[in-house]
Structure prediction request, 194 residues.
Amino acid sequence: MLAEKCRRLNHKHLQSLKGRIFNIQIDDLITKENSKLKPLSVSLAVDEDRRVILGVEVSEIPAFGHLAKLAAKKYGLRKDEHLNGLTRLFENISPIVSSEVIVKSDEHQRYPGIVSTYMPHAKHLTFKSERGCVAGQGELKKVQFDPLFIVNHTCALLRANVNRLIRKTWCTTKDPNKLKAHLDLFVYFIIIIY
Prediction:
């Protein structure tokens, strides 16, 4: 399968950067599996200095906000696999980053625990999330200085170039594994271009 080949080539590329990654940014992009009532979380880590996507993981999450009751009624309770997705992401990237890496993220409640588990010597900096603007599919922020610009710009790139991540589209993910394969292809494509 082409995605499997891209995964191997992405891993080989990351091994060439081993020990030379000192600043990373992490975030989650929320998308859907066929319906807004079945959300998915795309967790990603980006090298701040090179703008290289270090890892991408897809995980199922339960619906939240005003859709939570309707989703539970229509599809039943949905498992929260987000922590498993973050675990897979950090298992893949922790061997290649520097031991004194600086990790930047928003104030998501799960990030401090996962960072301290997989990167105990890392310095973890958190920033308050800002409201998105219309440009960049809502991923880019309205503020003048965005400390998480690299990861937010990468999320906007993903939304703009991976058709099933565009917010208002008929192209939706039917299988989270196929979304992961699509993202692995895109990550390889970005590596080739840059």
